[in-house]
Amino acid sequence: MATNEYAEVLAWLYRLETAKGMDFKLERVTLALKNLGDPQTRFAAAHVAGTNGKGSVAAMLHAMFSAAGYRVGLYTSPHLVSFTERVRIGAETITEPEVVDLAREIRTAATVRGIDLTFFEFVTVMAFLHFARRGVDLAVVEVGLGGRLDATNVLDPAVAVITSIGLDHEEFLGNTLASVAAEKAGIIKPGRPVIVGRVPPVARDVIERAASERRADAFWAAQDFLVSDTVPFRFRGLDCEFGDLTLALRGAYQHDNAAVALAALALLRRAFPIGHAAIRRGLAEVRWPGRLDVVQTAPLVVLDGAHNADAVATLRNELPSIVGARPVHLLFGVMRDKQWQPMVEVLGPMVSSATLTTALPPRGAPAALLARAFERYCPVRVVPDPMRALETSLQSIGPDATILATGSLFLVGTIYPHFLSRRGQHALFTVPATLHP
């Protein structure tokens, strides 16, 4: 398969995203999957929703069960560097020829039936078809947005997971914690258990009611399961105890995510037995790039895809343990549909300067607009092109300072290839190399 065929498929998919946008219904994806033999029924699944933390929890589950020797699929979004990151089995991403072949098949099947799929629906069908045909034992599937009407919600999972509840995507999920919780709770299926992380009381009430209505057992962080605050740490709950655990992902908050992942594992291990050694190895080796990700040491460069107020507040709390006394110079870009002003209020007081850029134009907020918000806190610089903004930032600070790039996963994904190339890598999911000095 020529590379240009893959490029043409991606261009077509991205045009689909631009033309159709987001249209949340389950009828189209259900019909498309039915016409392709309902591949989503041919593997067990863990379905992971949440405002923050869902990608990390999904990555941990994937890593632990893969370490135990199972054939485990992982479906996440968005990608950072390559589209193929979205669909993985074990250490392997879906290949470019597989993307081309599956896209052709799905497009033909949908066209014949008059099914007009959105971008995310199309890619979800692709992932499920790939997992079924490659014979995965278990698929860990991250919700794209919300839950109730997300394309992934055609699954009947062995376990549902809700990691956290906060305000994000208000135009789709509502502007209250209760409305967001109701959308996330839409992934709870009749008779299927749900694991719930630390959520506000109002969100717990909503989730508890949804679980009760569907006769689904709910298990709650800090009530039914917990992890210790020691290093190494210990998990207790759901008739399980796992000790001597270390986590490859930075940040104390990741231990809460690990608790959720381990609780889901405790339920899944009834069908997929897994030993302590595989659990320890999976957590010690898990990779989830772009989250408190140190990609260079001199100057220190930290990439973090925090893109809402809760995530930025967590970033603020975690950053001192990484940067120490180094001055922090911010590289910031955010999508225009985000409530980014609260993010400025958190980040502004903690940085020495801010370089503002435009993430994924035209969807990104204009750099000049962001600069006006930051200028009350620190010196600002406007560099609309993200790569040029990175180069300018690197050239303007000394080796003992820090660059923090945050505000959007799209920003992180745009600048990540610069650091991969310095390591001699072309993709994220390859054998990690030593950090460039």
Overview of this protein structure:
- It contains 15 helices and 17 strands.
- It is α/β, with parallel strands linked by helices.
- The chain folds into two domains: 3-285, UDP-N-acetylmuramoyl-L-alanine:D-glutamate ligase (3-Layer(aba) Sandwich); 293-422, Mur ligase, C-terminal domain (Protein-Tyrosine Phosphatase, Chain A, Alpha-Beta Complex), CATH 3.90.190.20.
- The strands form three sheets. It has an eight-stranded mixed beta sheet with strand order 4-3-2-5-1-6-7-8, with helices on both faces. A six-stranded mixed beta sheet has the order 12-13-17-14-15-16, with helices on both faces.
- The longest helix has 18 residues, at 3-20.
- It starts with a helix and ends in a 15-residue tail after the last helix.
- Unreliable residue runs: 431-437
CATH superfamily of the largest domain: Mur-like, catalytic domain
Number of domains: 2
Radius of gyration: 21 Å
Helical residue percent band:
40-55%
Task: Calculate the terminal CA-CA distance, rounded to whole Å.
Answer: 38 Å
Number of helices: 15
| Computed structural class | alpha/beta
CATH fold node name of the largest domain: UDP-N-acetylmuramoyl-L-alanine:D-glutamate ligase
- Principal-axes shape call: globular
CATH architecture of the largest domain: 3-Layer(aba) Sandwich
Strand content: 15-25%
Number of strands: 17
**Largest sheet, order of strands side by side?**
4-3-2-5-1-6-7-8
**Oligomer type:** single chain
The level 1 CATH classification of the largest domain is: Alpha Beta
The overall pLDDT, averaged over residues, is: 94
